[in-house]
Amino acid sequence: MAGESATGAEIRAGRRALWIAIPGAVLSVLPLVWALSSALRPSEEVFRYLYPLSWHTLIPETVTLGNFVTLLGGEFHWAMINSVIVAFLSVVLGTFLSATAAFALAVLRFPGRGALFGVLVLSFLIPFEAIAIPLATTFRAMEMQNTYIGLVLPGIGSGLAIFLLRQFFLNIPPSLAEAARIDGLSWWGVFRNIYLPLSRPSLVGAGLVVFVFQWQSFLWPLLIAPDPAMKVAPVAIADFAGELGVDYGQMFAGAILAAGVPLLVLLVFQRQFTASLASSGTKE
Fold this sequence. Notes:
This protein has 14 helices and two strands, in the order ααααααααααααββαα. It has two domains: 2-64; 67-279, MetI-like fold (Orthogonal Bundle), CATH 1.10.3720.10. β1 (241-242) and β2 (245-246) form a beta hairpin. It is mainly alpha-helical. The longest helix has 38 residues, at 2-39. The chain is 71% helix and 1% strand. A two-stranded antiparallel sheet has the order 1-2. Belongs to the binding-protein-dependent transport system permease family. Keywords: Cell membrane, Membrane, Transmembrane, Transmembrane helix, Transport. It holds the Pfam family BPD_transp_1.
């Protein structure tokens, strides 16, 4: 009886949580729905139905794909391509560097390891905007302005990705590495043959962290890549606000296209990302 009572209480608690979660989910989706609706209507109608609120606030009275056609017929598609290139290179290089750094902090024994990890954690508290301008000055002095290298380098050193991978590596039994070392395997072999194959979900999670940081980056590309040929999607979207006015229709269309890429990536890799977060918080 006690077990049945506890089960009933859990069901009622789950239902209450569901009734709270559903309105929250609807409210969180409404801005995205309004942005999509604004992208599908003429620019002059974007703010016409904001007050008073009506069904036309979320459902366009006149549906048109003109904003997307004009957008993709211009230079915006090159900005999207630049964003994809920068994000891809950042994920490949950033995930590899984060994995090697996490392996060293989790497995190798060397003086100052704890202090180095503490500095890494403290780096989370420093906003990138605080160092962006002096860093851009340094990159310009090294002639990395308007280059993919200049756009990619700041994003490959992700402290959060290193933290997540280190926490996962700590869950792997040290006896595996010790046995491999006794068999004559080098530390690089241990990392490549044991730790990397066991950490695929966490590698996906770390890669997603790097990807999201680079994809939504605005200030750094604005500072280091002013050349129109090197613009990324967030900067290109901001350019729709010009001196003579703002083309809100194309701005919302660009925002939908730019948001669709990370949304698709997260939907594809959501299970691995959730598994990486779950496994990084416990140690057996």
